[in-house]
Amino acid sequence: MAMIADDNRGLRLAARYAVLVLIAVIFVFPLVFMVMSSLKPTQQLLEDSGNLRAFLPVGDISLSNYFAAFQRAPVASFVFNSVLVTGVTVILSLLVCSAAGFAFVFVHWKGRELFLSILLATLIVPFETIAIPLLLMVANLPWLGPEGVTWGWLNSYRVQIVPFIADALTIFLFVQYFKDLPGELIEAARVEGASWFQIYRRIVMPLSGPILATAAILKFLVMYNQYLWPLMVTQEEGYRPVMVGLQYFFQLNVAWGEVMAYLSLITVPVLAFYLYLQKAFIASIASTGVKG
Amino acid sequence: MARVSLRNVRKSYGTAHVIKGVDIEIEDGEFCVFVGPSGCGKSTLLRMIAGLEDITSGELRIGDRLVNDLPPKDRGVAMVFQSYAIFPHMTVRENVAFGLTIAGASKEEKDAKVAEAARILQMEHLLDRRPSQLSGGQRQRVAIGRAIVRKPEVFLFDEPLSNLDAALRMDMRMEIGKLHQQLGATMVYVTHDQVEAMTLADRIVVLKDGQVMQIGAPMDLYHDPANLFVAGFLGAPSMNFLKVTVQGVNGGKVLVSNEALDPVEVSGKRGPFRVGQQAILGLRPQYLSVARGVGRLHGAVALTERLGSETVLEVTLKDGTPVIAALAQDAVFPIGAQVNLEFDPDRVHLFQEP
Predict the structure, then answer these.
(1) CB-based contact A191 B82, cutoff 8 Å
(2) Min Cα separation B155/chain A (Å)
(3) Domain spanning B240-352 has what CATH number?
(4) Residue B93: is its pLDDT beyond 90?
(5) Contact A191/B79, CB-based, under 8 Å?
(6) Domain spans of chain B?
(7) Would you say the ipTM is above 0.90?
(8) A195–chain B nearest CA distance, Å
(9) To the nearest whole number, what is the mean pLDDT of chain A?
(10) Probe site for chain A from B98, B151, B157 (most A CB atoms < 10 A)
(11) Residues of chain A predicted below pLDDT 50
(12) Model pTM?
């Protein structure tokens, strides 16, 4: 009997691994294809694409596509712009949206249910429908900078950051998470004399590791993949992000090797960020022992 | 230290009235226990004192101050919650010192006060641990430590022992009693456990449906309950109630009987009673004994529970009413045996029929 049980367990384990490997392959192979192709000349890349060689570093392998990509477009500038815009937006978004979620869940004020409903209703409005009105709006907004008050936000970093700091989805994520935090922790802190801000900073935020990591990853992906909005609001190369930069590689004849090299380069920050937060994510789950 | 005064305090959620005009005066240094069944409003009342619930109307004073509209932090109270509510991301030391940290105390002051609290609660060895590494009893100590370190005017306890197992509950109960003697502070304690209420309280407030049923010292409530609810709520096993008919009234004494009860003259202080009316006679199981002679109550044994030091006997009376007798010795009775029960007429209570 024990033998049969062991066999079953082994089979189940094998089946489980088979499924996991299959899923991993589905997710990893496009990346492998991208990196391998970025090392090959366009001619070889097209020849290999119909067979397994597409996933292997074989043939005429070099970094020449990378050098060519840097010559064709200001890659470093695009990556810098994207990382800056995305990084600043993610940080400000976590601060603003978590504070909003806190106010919706813990602070009792008149109309908060209605306000939250209206906010959540905006989730169903696609960005494309508000893009043009938003463009007209930001084109005429004032800004107080070192050179005094200026009008119009086009061709700047702020136009890519400010409209995306607060969003309904991120607030909703925080609201749902905060609702599950034990209310007695908040009440205990209130009785102990903590102000709302102190409760937010000393109690709620330290217990919000998992949701901060989740919200950060989601926001990062949305911001890093921005295409339509930066295309609309930036005409100057100096402010353009990576996705807009992609069009530099699709003019006249497409050099697929360079495209793949560019894509490989701009994927690095995403992977690095994800791997970093994955660690923080696991650590934050391990350290929160909210149990009675 | 301070007294707590509630005058005609009410609480409503829309049309639902959960506290219906409560008057309680808690003296300086008193240990006052709010007791009652689930949903009676005892926790709501405590949370109103803490400032965690608004007061719909009435006056709440702590010391000389009207605190109706003060936030919790300005009321000079500390609270121990049922779930302990200790902060999971902080060490025990940080938890205990939390209120001091918020108040901006110096490190030396915090260290000294935390050490003092840890000494009182015998948890010096736990200070650098995280809550997840503590047992339920230890967590409760931390919660109490956090409360005492700020030296509040009033301590509030919201069913602090109900998450502990029976043995630990008894230990912690005694410790809370000692703590009260040591600190001499005003304490308000909510529980549904009558043993906690009876053993800890200087005075008990019995609540039902948002109203005060009776306020008094534990033994006063036990020996002289003002109504059927208090009589039935305090005491374990709970009081037996018999439907009786009033046969005669003589000054303060009332003669009652029923099918299973021989006529007996009892005190009529919860009167007035008139001849022929129905009333309820309350008999505590501890004051019932098996008569050697004819006795006063007659029935048959339905169940015997032998606990060693005492025997709990369930007797079905002639009229079908079940009656519990807690006999102070080990005894064996066959099921179905006819028994006559005896009691001291001075130790029974006659109530109006509701």
Answers:
(1) no
(2) 11
(3) 2.40.50.140
(4) yes
(5) yes
(6) 4-233, 240-352
(7) no
(8) 9
(9) 88
(10) B98
(11) 1, 287-292
(12) 0.80
